[in-house]
């Protein structure tokens, strides 16, 4: 699985180098804005994220997680559509280990050790269905597939192929931007390959311009397992709050945010910082 992850990231790196830089989507937030990057425009974003008390219950691991880098590239293939590729690299410093479903796979990893793996590669398409007007928000649709290139031997991957579809809306009122997402995720059962779980996906974000270059931002983004009873390990209910700021100069933007877990299965607290770059790469047909 690690070799597959390396191959996947070589492909992403090649695409990123070909595209040069890019325009940010919404870092440090993860709630998707229905607006696309624009025809012929490329957006590249990268950053570092750190979460404390991150849990990987299938492997029985808990610890402090560094994600470096977390990166994405978006390519505007038309005025209303873009292609997205996102991924990253994780390293976990294990502070607790317990018996779990897949703990036998990670029996060489103990308390005080570290383990690492590529993140699952996510390939998606975002389409703006309706433009924003004075009387209505913009509406969009995002479809994405998460590939099983993360190593489950590391304890950090689930080795499942997952599918996501979300409706997006966004509205600007004076200096405040409101964005909302609601959707469905169909994710594989990491313990029974022939079964799937359905997740309700949600996100709400608010960004406010303090002046032309500086915005303060906040969001709540998460998932809810629709299956009756206790959610499957590895795909438990999750809800993360982020609040931070971003500063834009020309086609470049820097950002930072604090992350707070809202559920017992979430990391307790974390932070992220990164940058985004946007540029016109080609003339779209």
Question: What this model shows, in words?
Answer:
The chain has 285 residues and is mainly beta. It is globular. It has one helix at residues 2-19, and strands spanning 41-56, 61-76, 81-97, 114-118, 122-130, 138-146, 162-173, 176-188, 196-211, 214-225, 238-249, 252-261, 269-280.
- Mean pLDDT metric: 88
Kindly state the percentage of residues in helix. Answer: under 10%
- Count of helical stretches: 1
Structurally, how many domains make up the residues?
1
Strand order of the largest sheet: 1-2-3-5-6-7-8-9-10-11-12-13
Our Rg estimate from Cα atoms comes to 19 Å
Shape: globular
The number of distinct β-strands equals: 13
Q: How many strands, which pairing sense, and closed or not: the largest β-sheet? A: 12 strands, antiparallel, barrel
- The ordered H/E elements are HEEEEEEEEEEEEE
CATH architecture: Beta Barrel
CATH class: Mainly Beta
Task: List the SSEs and their pairings.
Layout: H1 2-19, E1 41-56, E2 61-76, E3 81-97, E4 114-118, E5 122-130, E6 138-146, E7 162-173, E8 176-188, E9 196-211, E10 214-225, E11 238-249, E12 252-261, E13 269-280
Antiparallel strand pairs: 1-2, 1-13, 2-3, 3-4, 3-5, 5-6, 6-7, 7-8, 8-9, 9-10, 10-11, 11-12, 12-13
């Amino acid at each position: 699985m690690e070799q597959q992850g390396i191959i996947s990231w070589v492909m992403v790196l090649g695409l990123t180098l070909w595209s040069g830089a890019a325009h940010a989507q919404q870092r440090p937030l993860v709630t998707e804005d229905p607006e696309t990057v624009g025809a012929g425009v490329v957006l590249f974003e990268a950053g570092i994220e750190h979460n404390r008390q991150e849990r990987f219950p299938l492997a029985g691991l808990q610890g402090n997680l560094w994600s470096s880098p977390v990166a994405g590239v978006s390519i505007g293939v038309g005025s209303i559509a873009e292609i997205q590729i996102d991924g990253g690299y994780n390293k976990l410093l294990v502070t607790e280990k317990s018996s779990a479903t897949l703990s036998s796979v990670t029996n060489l990893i103990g308390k005080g050790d570290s383990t690492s793996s590529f993140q699952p590669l996510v390939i998606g398409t975002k389409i703006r269905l309706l433009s924003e007007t004075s009387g209505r928000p913009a509406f969009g649709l995002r479809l994405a597939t998460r590939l099983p290139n993360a190593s489950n031997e590391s304890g950090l991957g689930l080795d499942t192929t997952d599918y996501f579809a979300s409706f997006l809306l966004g509205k600007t009122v004076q200096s405040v931007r409101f964005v909302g997402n609601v959707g469905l995720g169909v994710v594989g059962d990491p313990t029974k390959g022939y079964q799937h779980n359905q997740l309700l996906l949600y996100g709400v974000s608010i960004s406010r311009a303090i002046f032309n270059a500086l915005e303060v931002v906040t969001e709540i983004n998460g998932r809810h397992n629709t299956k009756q009873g206790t959610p499957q390990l590895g795909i438990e209910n999750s809800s993360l709050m982020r609040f931070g700021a971003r500063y834009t100069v020309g086609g470049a933007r820097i950002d930072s945010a604090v992350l707070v877990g809202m559920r017992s299965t979430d990391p307790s607290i974390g932070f992220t910082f990164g940058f985004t770059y946007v540029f016109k790469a080609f003339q779209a047909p």
